[in-house]
């Protein structure tokens, strides 16, 4: 186990692993590790699916092509059940969200101390002790909030596309409380606007916090297991057992959270085409 466990105890070990690799940009902190891992995983997804898309055949598919087609058919089926309009842009969006989030979540299943071990092996223990690297992008609130903000603007864009600028603005002021007289409509407009603003604001916040909370909690459990059961040879077998048990359970969380983020995005976009 990491040298942080032995020298500074569990608290220092966890604090070290929760630190981001950052640089100062414009008075703020830019998380290099989150950005780099997210970018690499996104490129892996594009290369992976692009390769099998170019190699696709009408005959008997290879195992790789069959697996990709299985994922695509699953996503398309989910989109078809939730979105009843033109799916040509929605299915690729849902596929991208699902696979990207799955890949980012799966980083939580890799050995926690591998980045530190790699730095220690190549540059020495002192450099490793002062090097921070978190490689679970979805355990960084910046990632989940960034994705959710994009979803938020997609919802607005589809709402305006479906209803027009005037229709969208009218709906903000006249729903969900409908009135028939001009005076009643004016009286209810502030309440309608307030409720609609809250509804639109809650969607990206709930998306971001749900994914972040589950992945951050899962990462923290791995840190606790590693910190508590990784200090000696006697604790090696219990550590492997508990890490394996939590990893098997965490696979369900990894896939489920990616599915929830994807399906809620589709449902929110589908709702943008409905009149209230």
**Order of strands side by side in the largest beta sheet?**
1-2
Sheet with the most strands? 2 strands, antiparallel
Separation, N- and C-terminal Cα atoms: 57 Å
- SSE run: HEEHHHHHHHH
Number of strands: 2
Characterization of the model:
This protein has a two-stranded antiparallel ribbon. It is built from nine helices and two strands. The chain has 276 residues and is mainly alpha-helical. It has helices at 3-18, 32-54, 63-82, 90-106, 114-123, 125-129, 141-174, 182-229, 236-272, and strands at 22-25, 28-31. The longest helix has 48 residues, at 182-229. The termini are far apart. Helix 1 (3-18) runs antiparallel to helix 8 (182-229), helix 7 (141-174) runs antiparallel to helix 8 (182-229) and helix 7 packs parallel to helix 9. The model is unreliable at 1-7 (pLDDT under 50).
């Amino acid at each position: 186990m990491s040298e942080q466990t032995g020298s500074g105890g569990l608290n220092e070990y966890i604090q070290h692993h929760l630190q981001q690799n950052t640089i100062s940009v414009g008075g703020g902190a830019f998380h290099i590790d989150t950005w780099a891992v997210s970018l690499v995983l996104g490129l892996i997804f594009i290369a992976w699916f692009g390769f099998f898309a170019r190699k696709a055949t009408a005959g008997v598919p290879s195992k790789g092509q069959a697996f990709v087609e299985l994922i695509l058919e699953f996503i398309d089926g989910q989109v078809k059940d939730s979105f009843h309009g033109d799916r040509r842009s929605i299915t690729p969006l849902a596929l991208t969200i699902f696979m990207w989030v799955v890949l980012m979540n799966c980083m939580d299943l890799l050995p926690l101390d591998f980045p530190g071990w790699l730095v220690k092996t190549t540059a020495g223990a002192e450099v490793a002790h002062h090097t921070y690297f978190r490689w679970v992008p979805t355990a960084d609130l910046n990632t989940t909030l960034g994705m959710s903000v994009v979803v938020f603007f997609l919802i607005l864009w589809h709402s305006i596309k479906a209803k027009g600028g005037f229709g969208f603005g009218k709906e903000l002021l006249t729903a969900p409380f409908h009135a028939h007289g001009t005076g009643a409509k004016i009286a209810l407009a502030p309440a309608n606007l307030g409720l609609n603003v809250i509804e639109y604001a809650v969607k990206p916040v709930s998306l971001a916090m749900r994914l972040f909370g589950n992945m951050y909690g899962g990462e923290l459990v791995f840190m606790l297991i590693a910190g508590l059961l990784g200090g000696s040879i006697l604790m090696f077998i219990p550590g492997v057992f508990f890490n394996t048990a939590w990893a098997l359970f965490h696979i369900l969380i990894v896939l489920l959270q990616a599915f929830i983020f994807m399906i809620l995005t589709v449902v929110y976009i589908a709702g943008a085409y409905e009149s209230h």
